[in-house]
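Task 17 of the worksheet. Students: predict the tertiary structure of the chain below and write it out as structure tokens. Keep your answer in the requested format; marks are given for formatting as well as content.
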Amino acid sequence: MDFAKEYQEKLVSPQEAVKCVKSGDWVDYSLCCAVPIALDAALAERKDELEDVKIRSGITSTPRKVLEVDQEGDTFTYMDWHFTGYDRKMKKAGNKNIFFNPLLYRNLPYHYRKNINVDVAMMMVSPMDEKGFFSFSLSNSASAAIAENADIVILEVNKNLPNVYDLKEGAIHISEVDYIVEHDSALPVLPPAGEPSEVDKAVAKLVLEELVDGSCIQLGIGSMPNTIGEMIAASDLKDLGIHTEMLVDAYLAMYKAGKITNKMKQVDKGRGIFGFALGSQELYDWTNENRALLSAPIDYCNDPYVMAANDNMMSINNALEVDLLGQTASEAAGYNQISGTGGQLDFLTGAHMSKGGKGLICMSSTFTTKDGVKKSRIRPRLAEGSIVTDPRSQAYYIITEFGKVKLAGLATWQMAEALISIADPEFRDELIAEAEAMGIWRKSNKR
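Model answer:
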């Protein structure tokens, strides 16, 4: 087969490619670093020609023209599987055409193959190889499932994307593609993390006490997980492994410090596994043609049975608040959608199933409102509108700068006592009174 010839036959301008989109269509932009730039701009140019175009995406890390040209939602409706700062900013600015798609992340490929339709899929990929394959690069996640389910597939080829080797489902063949567009846009990068706070350091120190040599690490995103990664890099731990949904710079720091070898893993021994990557250019360079780092679809990365097959699976994530009933909210503050469930519950489940594994939820004990009011993150009940990310029926640790508690197997009064013990002392008497009113406080409980 002459793949170069086929490539040229399918190569068109962005404007020509998006002519296939019709009114009423469901369009998919894929996720994170796979979200197209030129195709998005070309589709936005058709605002006045189209009606009722629905667009799905996730982990939006670059501006979306379809949102910026149509803030009233006259033409485009945009749905995101996992909100980012950009989504929150657009919502706050008054955009009426952006909505959240609730999701347990490991189910995303399943949804595309079983539950939802895609008329047109457009996604960014790295350049074609000599066999006619395009790498999904930094965004394996659900890309294969999206393309399989689409009536029309458009690729935006970007030479700046690394060629990432995959465990499976990490590439698409030119024979499966309808149109090709070339556009070499800069990759989205996260700014360097600032100096960690004293609270971050205190929590990270408590987390490190739970880790052992050979631990298989999953880290979430944010200042606290980043601090934990940096402290792991400076620790005496060794022979750590990677099995994560999101590859972030903390892993690179651990690797450069000689902590990552993956040789103690029971599954995918010698190889770090991730679903997508987002971070610095140096992180992206690390993934390029690196056979020790393999991408995989998210229904593999986030499968609790896969991760549990690795001993000492350690899941480390953030939370916004937890109530005295043991329910954790990590994605929304009241009715304000902050992020999404993502894989937090997936990894809490898999880590608890793992021999020696632990699911660790980390947070500061308090936060300060814009009005300067100090409030406890450990509350009698979750704020109205807050979403339960991790149910009380799942086993996990909660860690603040005041300590750590394991909620697995505890009765309601035990959970209340444990959580109050790691709350800011300023709020403990108030929380005890609330627990008594809720009927989850024993007379013999510690005070």
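Marker's comment: The chain has a mean pLDDT of 94. Residues 64 and 371 are 32 Å apart (CA to CA).
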